[in-house]
Amino acid sequence: MKGIEVKNISRSFKDTRALHQINLTFEEGKIYGLLGRNGAGKSTLLNIISNRKYPDEGYVTVDGVPSVENDDALRKIFLINEKNLYPESMKVKDAFKISKDFYPSFDEAYALKLSEMFELNIKKKIKSLSTGYQSIFRNILALSVNVPYVFFDEPVLGLDAYHRDLFYKILIEKYSEEPFTAVISTHLIEEVANVIEEVIIIKKGEILKNESRDNLLANSYTVSGTISQVDSYLSSLPKYTEVLGADVIGGLKSAYILGKSDKHLPEGLEKSPMDLQKLFIHLTSI
What PROSITE patterns does the annotation carry (predicted)? Predict the structure, then answer.
């Protein structure tokens, strides 16, 4: 079976439960958003998938093969996060050269092309790069490695607006030309909302939502009007709907609802789509 399967993964650190019974499948050729607040367990999950940490229970398979201590399986995965796995005294250009030793499909020419686009000085030592250019360096590695599964843990950390936009554009171009599985773990949800296809929301080590972005947004909406009108509407909703929260300004109220809107709105009320960031905020705050 193609894809990465995460089966019943749990992990604790002393008295802190980081992950609890996580079951996920990352399919071939999709862009996932792994979304969660700080401390939700995103980085722990990615480190377990890439074999940098071990679970207390459960296991991970890559294309149907267990990944633990399996070099062939792990060569199909590339994870970038805030940690630099190259010697800090090494120059960027030399890091590109040795990457091919570990990942034979690494495209050094493409990495050099991206370096020009991002204005990354390849003659600099890795330790001398700013926070933003450390992120750019790691992103270029991830975009050039050409493996089936690439995990980006906070890929735009320290990047300015121009470089963030450039990263997303190049990622989409790369994906369009040579589809691969990309998983973006980030807290900048508004920026990735139009990039990701699948949404995984994690809260306190457990999965809240795991479905397509379009389906998730199609089953959520906002209703606005006077307080009395909105309250009356909410009281008439069927049990399968869930009111995630509400905002009140003066005599007006906006309610955020999870579930399909199959009721005709009374006159005076207004329905609007809920964006992914607003939905995430309310799902993770309850």
Answer: ABC_TRANSPORTER_2
